[in-house]
């Protein structure tokens, strides 16, 4: 699995297509809630499978609370093949090597993804909440 930080408009459009398929079509998230003003300034990533086709995406951005990881999406046929892990590992390396290093790193995890993030040192914080009609927990990196 190869992961690249998005650097062209074409790559960003690929990331948006993946997010559209996973969030808007599959999970029924309203498109106006999926795409936001942060897309223009966030750090986006794409994972490429064995066929060299983009199959996963995510982004991170700096907030007033720290560094927030967001919009993790892997196309259904590619799930369980390491795309999400590869993206997350690459993002954490890039964050640790950036000006944002040593800030709080957090995310909002869908309930079903909590065990995945726990494997990478994230722990639940606070109570369950709804985001786009999907149950989530805030998770914070502990190391």
What does this protein look like?
Helix 3 links the parallel strand 4 and strand 5 (105-110). Helices cover 29% and strands 37% of the residues. It has one domain (2-141): 3-Layer(aba) Sandwich (Aminopeptidase), CATH 3.40.630. It is an alpha+beta fold and 143 residues long.
Short description:
With 143 residues, the protein is an alpha+beta fold. The chain has helices at 9-26, 31-34, 83-96, 114-118; strands spanning 2-5, 43-48, 54-63, 66-74, 105-110, 122-131, 134-141. The longest helix has 18 residues, at 9-26.
Radius of gyration, Cα only, in angstroms?
14 Å
Dominant shape:
globular
Give the count of helical stretches: 4
Order of helices and strands: EHHEEEHEHEE
Q: Within the largest sheet, what's the order of strands? A: 1-2-3-4-5-7-6
Q: State the low-pLDDT regions, or none.
A: none
What would you call the structural class?
A: alpha+beta
Overall number of structural domains: 1
The beta-strand count equals 7
Under the CATH scheme, the architecture is 3-Layer(aba) Sandwich
Termini Cα gap = 25 Å
The CATH topology corresponds to: Aminopeptidase
What characterizes the major β-sheet?
7 strands, mixed
What is the fourth-level CATH superfamily? Answer: Gcn5-related N-acetyltransferase (GNAT)
Beta-strand percentage range: 35-45%
What's the CATH class, please? Alpha Beta
Helix percent band? 25-40%
Mean pLDDT: 93
